[in-house]
Amino acid sequence: MRILIIEDDPLIGDGLKSGLRLLGYAVDWFSNSREGDQALGVVHYDAVVLDLGLPGEDGPSKAASRGWTREQTTI
C-alpha cells in the first residue's frame, strides 16, 4: 500500500512517515499542497493523509476540489 501525506508541520509529517514505514507501508510526505498535487499527478496512492489546516488550502477543500469522497478514497 502506498500512502501520501500532505502535512506542513515537520514533527507530525516525519512522525507519520516514520511510523507508517515501520509498519511496512510505502510513504511519500510533502509539506505543501503544490508538491502533493504534483505527486498525485504521477503516482497512484491507496490512501491520503491530509492536514486540516494547510497554508493556502485546507485538507477538506483539497479533497473536495479533487472530487474525493469517503466512499471512493481513503482520506
Automatic annotation (TrEMBL):
What organism is listed for this UniProt entry?
Rhizopus oryzae (Mucormycosis agent)
Which residues are recorded with the post-translational modification 4-aspartylphosphate? 51
Entry protein name: Response regulatory domain-containing protein
Claim: Phosphoprotein is one of the keywords in the record:
yes
Q: Which terms are listed as keywords in the entry?
A: Phosphoprotein
Gene3D superfamilies in the cross-refs = 3.40.50.2300
The Response regulatory domain sits at 2-75
Question: Which Gene Ontology BP terms does the record give?
Answer: phosphorelay signal transduction system
Ranges for the region named Disordered are: 56-75
| Domain of life assignment | Eukaryota
Record keywords: Phosphoprotein included?
A: yes
